[in-house]
Amino acid sequence: MAAIKKLLIANRGEIARRIIRTCHQQGIATVAVYSEADATLPHVREADQAVCLGPAPARESYLVIDKVIAAARDTGADAIHPGYGFLSENTAFAAACEQAGIIFVGPNARAIEVMGDKAAARQLMADSGVPVLPGFDQEGASDEQLVAASERVGFPLLIKAVAGGGGKGMRVVNRAADFQEALAAARREARGAFGDDRVLLERYLPTARHVEVQVFADNHGNAVHLFERDCSVQRRHQKVIEEAPAPGLDEATREAFGEAAVQAAKAIDYRGAGTVEFLYAPDGQFYFMEMNTRLQVEHPVTEMITGEDLVAWQLAVAAGAPLPKGQGQIQRRGHAMEVRLYAENPEQGFLPSSGLLSHLRWPHELARVDAGYEQGDRVEDFYDPMIAKLICHGRSRDEARQKLIRALEALEITGIHHNAPFLRRVLADDAFAGEQLDTRLLEHRPQLLEADDTDPALLALAAARVFNADPRYQDDPWQSLQGWRPVGQRFTQTLLQVDGNNLTVREHNGLATVGKQQGPVSATVSADQLRLHWGPQGLAARHARLADDTLLLFVGGRAHSVTLNPGRDSAGHDQQAGFVAPMSGTIVALHVQAGEHVAAGDAVITLEAMKMEHTLRATEPGTVHDFHVAAGDSVSEGTLLVEFEADAES
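== Biotin carboxylase ==
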């Protein structure tokens, strides 16, 4: 057995950082690879060496096998860890490592090939005694053969890409009349994603759970499982929340899952880490779905209930060592739960979002955070939009769930749209809390896709309390207009702009008025948190100061921007207002010159986002003082584009 001395990580982001962390603990030198777009990301900074693979598109960098192998040779790396995604389940890559004399931290090329072909894997599992769903997986079946087979399989059924993964090339068909249209769509998507339009058919279980088992095998004939995970909460076949162990299973069922998974691994003479995925039907039967021949995104929940470092296990097995523990030595403790934080906009159909992370605070004190980015990094739209995973462990499922809710509430992030509020809603949902799990949970609970609405008046009052607690503002005539004090009480009036809405907060004698709302108010403000009670309403939030007159309030993971005295600075002078980017995009036109006077309604600047142009116009007469951008620049949402001063008369 030869220990690994230097490891090249053929990946990026949070999984690259995760692997680097274990390598540093074991004294293994690390080599990061990166695209031109990723040159400043944390995984590049934290590795001992780094090699640029090429331009931003993955097909020109991370997916070019020759470039990765050359990087390993040039840096003297004796092993390559593929992470997940990219080349992790690429047969040619595993073979290229072997041919180059480089250890591939994963199974051999044959295992990847067999399990990467969904039809072949299904046939092998059936031959090995692992239960499979009724279906049709004939190699090279024509459309006509598939149509005929669909009647035998029965509806509802699932069309699944043979070379698929990540939910691509999959279609649920509920009736025969829809089959041919769905088949054409699945073939198109599979061809585009994998260059292979072969599909198979399986009976579809509309209320099944997704239960998977972590397996490990070595080169000495040993194979074990590290218990199961439940990954039923999904959106469009993509996992959203994962947990371990799977809730609601008796010990006999858990044991049956584990035995079937180990049997599947032995059937292909497997090596390293793998995950065997099953569909678990309401009647207690379970069926093989697929095997992922790599480390999974959700591996941290298994680490947290077992106390094992799965990356360390991978490195040991790849170096030729036997498994660190036998089946009887692997114990589980408590419950762990993970959410995937994506740069996406749930309110716009979960469209990916990109931009500069201008403010970022991870809740490390409340959760394990596996993150690919830190404050000041830029999220690009070239890659998968997952930016981090938050994982919590508790003595019980509910304790882990509550911890994860608190961690999401403590998250502070601006510059991109993200799904933290959506994740919090799912975790807090009665059905999820009550273990009513199946792969269509989000379809059954459409209200979980509805955005959280926090009353702007409540946000304004909270912000006013934060500003008022700052000694710098207590004697500011623009912030606090003091009136009479017959018994030492104070009248205050605070002018604020909350998420673009101008509001005035008035407080006197324990009552607060915002617009037409009035009620008794009390608040507790600390250095970064506040709790507020206003009549029947309450609010818990975190706050962060961006500038003297700009505040961020974070409620349920969502950021709200508040400006003190919009239109004036703290000394009462005219303040230059400006145009800010309403979304991330590219500047396509500047319609005026710096120093030019414009009338209300005049076009000032145009940006393009999502293939649509958005023109920003002056809302009042004034002077354009300066442009902070030029045509062709990429900008993130909230970026100041133009300095503008309204005419005194307006």
